[in-house]
Amino acid sequence: MTEEAAGFRARQREAGDGPPGATAAFPYDRMTVERFREAFPRARWRDDLGAWFVPGARAERRLTAWMGREWTGVLAYADQRGRDAFAFEPIESPYLEAADDLVVRTPYARAVIAALREVPWARWDPSAKAWRVPFRSLEDLRKRWPTIEEAARLGEPEERRKRERDRKASPEEEDRRAEAAERRRHRYPVPEDALPPAGRVLMTHAGCVVFEDATGELAEPAIVARFYPAVAADPAALTWATWRRPGHEELVQAWPARTPPGPEERARGWWQPTIETLREERRKAASLERAKATRQARG
After folding, report:
1. Where do the record's region annotations for Disordered lie (predicted)?
2. Are residues 153 and 130 in the same domain?
């Protein structure tokens, strides 16, 4: 199907769907509708079908023949009207060039792609690395142009670098880096009078872990308050315990708790995971192990 014909769709209704006839759908344009109604005076718009309905057992054949005779001329007329409208009121932008059609060339941005995909007849031209929009779609493009231009501006390399600098300088980014550094230390505060059993799969406020050793080193109150605010051990002191993530096989063999953790267990910071928690952790671990195996096979 040619690009011109792609905008016009005719389909015969199946027998039993009501009176014989065919549906016709095409982008709305007042002059096109007038020419269509002149050719098919019995056509009626059907909201339930989202298309024009033309009665008759051979309606699809008649619609297809009309498209072959008239549709190219309809589009050419619509293109000329679009050129005239653009000449009278152009879209001034560094991202738009008027040639045989409208050429849109922007930095990559998902919002640009999404907006242009909503414009009838817009297409990506890989050789020009640009979108091409026929003049007949000018008004559809004009409605979406503020969104396209703003997304293109934000996609400029300098704008991206500026946002990255701002992000790195933000307090939120500083907090994220500090949290990541703390996670890499693989330590967790535990009450000195309620040490977790080593070598077992347990749930914590930092996720599912296997504790390896209780160091006996006192956990600094400021560190605990910042990174582990849910852990409380009054009147006992908190000490550091080292941990690692459990593997999939360990999670499969782990014994689940019969009931969810109570307030006391959550306050001490560790508890036996429920079956629902273990199922989710098993899924995550299996995915990570598959990804690791794939990387090793490629390497």
Report:
1. 1-24, 155-191
2. yes
For residues 116 and 122, the answer to whether their CB atoms sit within 8 Å is: yes
Look at residues 142, 157, 172 and tell me which one is the last residue of a structural domain.
Answer: 157
**d(C-alpha 150, C-alpha 138), whole Å:** 18
What is the domain range of residue 123?
Answer: 96-157
Domain co-membership, 82 together with 101: no
Q: How far apart are CA 119 and CA 140, in angstroms?
A: 6
* CA diameter of the chain: 91
Q: Coil, strand or helix: which one is 269?
A: coil
Q: How far apart are CA 100 and CA 133, in angstroms?
A: 10
Beta sheet of 44-46, edge-to-edge order? 9-12, 21-25, 51-55, 44-46
Total domains in the chain come to 3
Same domain, 81 and 138: no
Contact 24, 54 (CB under 8 A): yes
pTM of the predicted protein model = 0.51
**Is the backbone peptide bond immediately before 261 cis, with ω within 30 degrees of 0?**
no
**Tell me: the pLDDT tens digits for 59-118?**
999 988 888 787 777 778 888 999 999 999 999 999 999 999 999 999 999 999 999 999
Q: Measuring CA to CA, how many Å separate 111 from each of 8, 124, 134, 156?
A: 27, 15, 20, 13
Question: What would the pLDDT profile of 12-28 be if each residue is shown by its tens digit?
Answer: 887 566 788 899 887 76
Kindly state the tokens that stand for 75.
């589009």
